[in-house]
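From the shared-data thread, chain only:
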Amino acid sequence: AIAARGDGQWRSLCDVMGRPELASDPRFATHEARIRHQDELDAAIEDWTHTLDRYEVMARCQAAGIAAGGVQDAEDLNKRDPQLAYREFFGTATCDRWDAYGVDRFPARFNGRRPGVYEGVHEAGADTFDIVTSLLEFTDEEAAGLMARGVLN
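Structure, as C-alpha coordinates:
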Protein backbone atom coordinates (compact mmCIF):
# COMPACT_ATOMS: atom_id res chain seq x y z
CA ALA A 1 0.00 0.00 0.00
CA ILE A 2 1.50 3.30 -1.11
CA ALA A 3 0.13 6.71 -0.14
CA ALA A 4 1.96 9.53 -1.92
CA ARG A 5 0.44 12.78 -0.66
CA GLY A 6 0.75 15.87 -2.77
CA ASP A 7 2.84 16.76 -5.75
CA GLY A 8 6.15 16.61 -3.86
CA GLN A 9 5.65 13.02 -2.76
CA TRP A 10 4.37 12.13 -6.21
CA ARG A 11 7.63 13.40 -7.72
CA SER A 12 9.56 11.43 -5.09
CA LEU A 13 7.61 8.29 -5.95
CA CYS A 14 8.40 8.78 -9.63
CA ASP A 15 12.10 9.00 -8.74
CA VAL A 16 11.90 5.92 -6.50
CA MET A 17 10.25 4.01 -9.36
CA GLY A 18 12.99 5.11 -11.72
CA ARG A 19 10.38 6.90 -13.83
CA PRO A 20 11.01 10.64 -13.25
CA GLU A 21 9.32 11.45 -16.58
CA LEU A 22 5.94 10.47 -15.08
CA ALA A 23 6.04 13.52 -12.79
CA SER A 24 5.75 15.85 -15.78
CA ASP A 25 3.45 13.63 -17.83
CA PRO A 26 0.24 15.70 -18.31
CA ARG A 27 -1.85 12.69 -17.22
CA PHE A 28 -0.19 12.76 -13.81
CA ALA A 29 1.10 16.32 -13.40
CA THR A 30 -1.59 17.36 -10.89
CA HIS A 31 -3.66 15.64 -8.24
CA GLU A 32 -6.81 16.08 -10.32
CA ALA A 33 -5.09 14.65 -13.40
CA ARG A 34 -3.87 11.64 -11.41
CA ILE A 35 -7.43 10.96 -10.27
CA ARG A 36 -8.76 11.27 -13.83
CA HIS A 37 -6.11 8.85 -15.07
CA GLN A 38 -6.15 6.53 -12.07
CA ASP A 39 -6.20 3.30 -14.08
CA GLU A 40 -3.14 4.35 -16.08
CA LEU A 41 -1.41 5.49 -12.89
CA ASP A 42 -2.17 2.18 -11.19
CA ALA A 43 -0.77 0.34 -14.23
CA ALA A 44 2.47 2.36 -14.11
CA ILE A 45 2.92 1.65 -10.40
CA GLU A 46 2.03 -2.02 -10.86
CA ASP A 47 4.60 -2.26 -13.66
CA TRP A 48 7.21 -1.19 -11.10
CA THR A 49 5.99 -3.16 -8.08
CA HIS A 50 5.18 -6.51 -9.66
CA THR A 51 8.84 -7.49 -9.93
CA LEU A 52 9.74 -6.46 -6.37
CA ASP A 53 9.13 -7.90 -2.95
CA ARG A 54 6.46 -5.87 -1.14
CA TYR A 55 8.81 -5.13 1.74
CA GLU A 56 11.41 -3.80 -0.70
CA VAL A 57 8.78 -1.46 -2.17
CA MET A 58 7.84 -0.39 1.34
CA ALA A 59 11.46 0.27 2.34
CA ARG A 60 12.24 2.26 -0.81
CA CYS A 61 9.13 4.40 -0.44
CA GLN A 62 9.61 5.00 3.27
CA ALA A 63 13.25 5.97 2.69
CA ALA A 64 11.95 8.66 0.31
CA GLY A 65 9.42 9.93 2.86
CA ILE A 66 6.40 8.25 1.24
CA ALA A 67 3.95 6.39 3.46
CA ALA A 68 3.97 2.74 2.42
CA GLY A 69 3.48 -0.67 3.97
CA GLY A 70 3.53 -4.23 2.77
CA VAL A 71 0.01 -5.63 2.90
CA GLN A 72 0.30 -8.51 5.32
CA ASP A 73 -1.43 -11.84 5.59
CA ALA A 74 -1.58 -13.89 8.79
CA GLU A 75 1.79 -15.55 8.15
CA ASP A 76 3.44 -12.16 7.65
CA LEU A 77 1.99 -10.86 10.89
CA ASN A 78 3.05 -13.95 12.77
CA LYS A 79 6.53 -14.46 11.31
CA ARG A 80 7.76 -11.24 9.70
CA ASP A 81 6.38 -8.21 11.52
CA PRO A 82 9.23 -6.80 13.64
CA GLN A 83 6.98 -4.64 15.84
CA LEU A 84 4.70 -7.54 16.76
CA ALA A 85 7.69 -9.84 17.33
CA TYR A 86 9.37 -7.30 19.60
CA ARG A 87 6.18 -6.98 21.64
CA GLU A 88 5.74 -10.78 21.76
CA PHE A 89 2.24 -10.31 20.40
CA PHE A 90 1.89 -13.93 19.33
CA GLY A 91 2.01 -16.79 21.76
CA THR A 92 1.30 -20.49 21.70
CA ALA A 93 -1.75 -22.41 22.89
CA THR A 94 -2.64 -26.10 22.85
CA CYS A 95 -5.82 -28.12 22.88
CA ASP A 96 -6.74 -31.81 22.83
CA ARG A 97 -7.43 -31.88 19.09
CA TRP A 98 -4.29 -30.05 17.87
CA ASP A 99 -0.73 -29.74 18.97
CA ALA A 100 0.61 -26.31 19.86
CA TYR A 101 -0.59 -23.53 17.56
CA GLY A 102 0.05 -19.81 17.32
CA VAL A 103 -2.40 -17.33 18.79
CA ASP A 104 -2.51 -13.59 19.18
CA ARG A 105 -2.11 -12.52 22.78
CA PHE A 106 -3.55 -9.72 24.81
CA PRO A 107 -1.36 -6.80 23.72
CA ALA A 108 -1.35 -4.65 26.85
CA ARG A 109 1.05 -5.00 29.74
CA PHE A 110 0.32 -3.96 33.30
CA ASN A 111 3.37 -2.99 35.33
CA GLY A 112 5.47 -4.51 32.54
CA ARG A 113 3.68 -7.88 32.59
CA ARG A 114 0.93 -9.53 30.59
CA PRO A 115 -2.04 -11.18 32.29
CA GLY A 116 -0.98 -14.71 33.24
CA VAL A 117 -3.89 -16.75 31.91
CA TYR A 118 -4.41 -17.30 28.21
CA GLU A 119 -6.63 -20.05 26.92
CA GLY A 120 -6.42 -19.48 23.19
CA VAL A 121 -9.36 -20.21 20.95
CA HIS A 122 -11.94 -22.70 22.15
CA GLU A 123 -12.90 -25.49 19.79
CA ALA A 124 -16.23 -25.11 18.02
CA GLY A 125 -18.96 -26.30 20.35
CA ALA A 126 -16.73 -26.47 23.44
CA ASP A 127 -18.84 -23.89 25.28
CA THR A 128 -22.27 -24.84 23.94
CA PHE A 129 -23.47 -26.66 27.06
CA ASP A 130 -22.41 -23.85 29.38
CA ILE A 131 -24.00 -21.18 27.18
CA VAL A 132 -27.28 -23.06 26.79
CA THR A 133 -27.57 -23.76 30.50
CA SER A 134 -26.33 -20.45 31.89
CA LEU A 135 -27.43 -17.84 29.36
CA LEU A 136 -30.49 -19.53 27.90
CA GLU A 137 -31.37 -21.12 31.26
CA PHE A 138 -32.07 -24.60 29.91
CA THR A 139 -31.78 -27.33 32.51
CA ASP A 140 -28.82 -29.66 32.28
CA GLU A 141 -31.17 -32.43 31.14
CA GLU A 142 -32.73 -30.27 28.38
CA ALA A 143 -29.33 -29.24 27.08
CA ALA A 144 -27.98 -32.79 27.20
CA GLY A 145 -31.05 -34.04 25.33
CA LEU A 146 -30.64 -31.44 22.58
CA MET A 147 -26.97 -32.26 22.25
CA ALA A 148 -27.65 -36.01 22.15
CA ARG A 149 -30.16 -35.47 19.30
CA GLY A 150 -27.61 -33.38 17.37
CA VAL A 151 -29.59 -30.14 17.67
CA LEU A 152 -26.61 -28.46 19.35
CA ASN A 153 -22.98 -29.03 18.48
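Helices lie at 6-16, 31-36, 38-49, 54-63, 74-79, 82-86, 128-134, 140-148.
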